[in-house]
Amino acid sequence: MAGIDYESKIPNNVNLSDDRRLQRALEHWQPSYLKWWQEMGPDGMQEKDIYLRTAISADKDGWAHFDYVKMPDYRWGIFLSERDPERKINFGDHLGQPAWQEVPGEFRNTLRRIIVTQGDTEPASVEQQRQLWKTAPSLYDMRNVCQVNVEEGRHLWAMVYLLHSYFGAEGRDEAEELLARRSGDPDKPRILDAFNQPCDDWLSFYCFTMFADRDGKFQLHSLSESGFDPLSRTCKFMLTEEAHHMFVGDTGLERVLRRSAQLTLLDPSGDARAQGGIDLETVQKFINFWFSYCLDLFGSEISSNAADFFAAGLKGRFMEEKNYTEHTALGQEKRVTLWKDGKFVDESVALRNAMNEVLRDDYIDDCVNAVRRWSKAVKDEGVDFEVTLPSRRFHRHQGIYAGAFFNPAGEPISQAEFEAQAAQWLPTDADKAYLRGIMHGVYEPGKVANWIAPPRRGINGQEFTYEYVKL
Ligand code: BYC
Ligand code: FE
Ligand code: FE
After folding, report:
1. Does residue 2 sit within a domain?
2. Do the domain assignments include residue 221?
3. Does residue 9 fall inside a structural domain?
4. What is the domain range of residue 377?
5. Ligand 1 atom 35: residue of nearest CA
6. What is the spatial distance between Cα 235 and Cα 422, in angstroms, rounded to a whole number?
7. Is the dihedral of CA 236, 240, 241, 243 positive or negative?
8. Cα(343) to centroid of ligand 3, in Å?
9. Is this model's pTM higher than 0.85 or not?
10. Which of 116, 118, 148, 360 to mutate to test the pocket of ligand 1 (most atoms within 8 A of CB)?
11. Nearest CA residue ID for atom 27, ligand 1
């Protein structure tokens, strides 16, 4: 394993200093990145000292260092997990051949598209979250959103490294474009829908890190199986950081739900809002919204793109090597329930064409586990309320259910019925205005907003009362 080069402008474990041309290209991109960060990173937060984790190596133990950092001084580096010189392509049509160290010409465009799509989500999420620190419910939470943001910035670096290293002039153009698109901008939006949705309250932020970063987990896992070895190694290391992002979302929602339950009990008429909190029904609506948008991130249930990615050995299933014994996915089918001319029709789809749905299934299982824990937490507080996930058909904008109308149980309804009930299922403007009204930043160490429970423990062994941000 190459050592960490901390002397150069760009920390890395890829021997960047041996490749002057690449090093120059990345050093040329760096000021554009920093300019983007100043413009689109946490708004007005750039001069503050924040207790942050920085990736300093790809070793399992001791890969990260914690200290106070001003975000623009964060050392965004390029780290790939260790190379296995014996590694073989472990699925698809090239099964058993040595993993590629260079991009095969025939897959150049496809691979570039996958890397660009992945890369685009990283800066998008920073843009979506740039106002959040101001209304953080505690310094602990304020620190966490900044942590997530600097690491998404590093994930952008990871993809830009691949574009610059392996895709020549086209890759350099794509790297520029990654800094030019803007979340939610009608003229130059980010690529995937969920990354153009506003995320400007903390309930949305916890849903986002729970559900969108979890899409990241599954997409990165399937890319870490890639036959293109540099992509595989890059994604493997990104997953190390991703765990904390999902932790922030999962525990954030649990803290909100617990507090909602407590305030429901505290109020004589069981109204958490009357106590300045968030009622459980509102939390459920935000879950419905973000979960459905994140299901869209897996693409269409039946997808020739997905079949091509798998056949080419570019993108495998979740835990392809570990969880499966058969790796060609040929001669197999998956049942998919289509919605055709106002009727459900069960159809067998060639497994390769159903790869998006296979990954979505694993994702949903993962989400179900979390929801079970949250429901238990609410019951432990003494309130009888079941948190649920809506059906995979509810409120979809991509795939075979898009354009039709289903209730959260997945039953078909008319557009008029949907519109009549949407306010009970999805966040309304009034709900968002209510959240804006109760979410004021709490800037004193150890204090927490009324609408959320404190976390069980702090960061890196520190107390919750630690001064995570020096304001
Ligand atoms: N929104 O066959 P289809 C993360 C497009 S999250 C808009 O259905 P395919 C993170 C699609 O591009 C992980 N458009 O799907 C989390 C295609 O367009 P073209 C991100 C969509 O091709 C939090 C057309 O519809 N990583 O890291 O199999 C914070 C038909 O395509 C959407 C990846 O996504 C959508 N939701 O695409 C920070 C991995 N869905 O080509 C970071 C890389 C589909 O006809 N991406 N379309 O113009 C991929 O592997 C695939 O592109 C997809 C599915 C998973 C997105
Ligand atoms: Fe990321
Ligand atoms: Fe993330």
Report:
1. no
2. yes
3. no
4. 16-470
5. 192
6. 38
7. positive
8. 38
9. yes
10. 118
11. 216
